[in-house]
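To start, one record:
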Amino acid sequence: MTGRVSSGVAASDVIRSMMRAGFPHDEIYDVLTGIGLPGEQVQLLIDRVAAEFHEAKLEPHPSRLATEVEKVFRGEIEDLQHMMLTQMDSLTRQLELVKTELEKLGRRVVELQSAIKMSQHKKVPELKRLEKSAR
């Protein structure tokens, strides 16, 4: 069950390397299935290597490049998160206002419908009286 990626390299070796570099399991899965390895086999290998890492208490060690990139973009990402959360809060408040206004409009429509029905009931006797007087 050690699928070969290329001559002499086992899929489990690629999985070990990618896990050690800090790649998430779903990305490892996508890479290996993308080159044609069966998904079930890849998942079993990932699970087996993850268990080996757990037993050996090995932790991923992202590359220095990944660490530096994270440092550069961490502030921007945090700012973006803050901005998005602020906008989401604002949208939530705006939606509540719209909901309140729609409820008010709904109540007003019901009031108007009631008023129309009442005015129609008042007009019916009036119309009958006018018909009698016209005869």
In short: Strands lie at 4-6, 9-10. The longest strand covers residues 4-6. The chain has a mean pLDDT of 83.
